[in-house]
Amino acid sequence: MTTFKLDKQGLIPAIIKNNYNGDIIMLGYMNPDSINKTIETKQVWFYSRSRSSMWHKGATSGNYFNVISIYIDCDYDAIQITVEPTGPGCHTGNDTCFFNKIEKQFIFEPAKTDVKILEKLYQIIKDRKNSNSNKSYTVNLFKNGPKKISQKVVEEAGETAIAAVSQDKKEFINESADLIYHLLVLTAALDVDPSQIWAELEKRSK
Fold this sequence. Notes:
alpha+beta; 6 strands; Ubiquitin-like (UB roll); 41% helix; single chain
């Protein structure tokens, strides 16, 4: 039996290679369940760190990764999966996610985050609320109703607190993002506009 070395989140990076031309298509993450599902179905399944759930590559786009072979590296902490894609491997429509060529030395600066990201995310969540797709994690949350969504908020709040107590900054950031996402889903489920929350915060700041 192969023993995988997982990271603190219980995940392992998976490099996806195109069997037709040898190109690297993308880098994803897998957990034990998605690895087993990939082996069982002969199609690639990943684990989404943002949605905290498995996802079947191609289930939404129709661009599946049919598995040819699976190898693990010498340290047992990374996987290479050779596949035959049924369409573009990247969500941009490119065959590979690695299409931005670096031709000069980069000066790395802190990423500039769009201050309106919460509004953008909320709008996407609202759109999912009116969707009939069975493939969307957000849609399925809405189908389960406010009670189930509230349970997820409590769960994510607990995981955020644990990360804080452990002083694991990276994990705290990931769990905080999960918490905010689920809180926005609950906000949409209750038909509350986030601007009402911002107004309350503004009032309290005075």
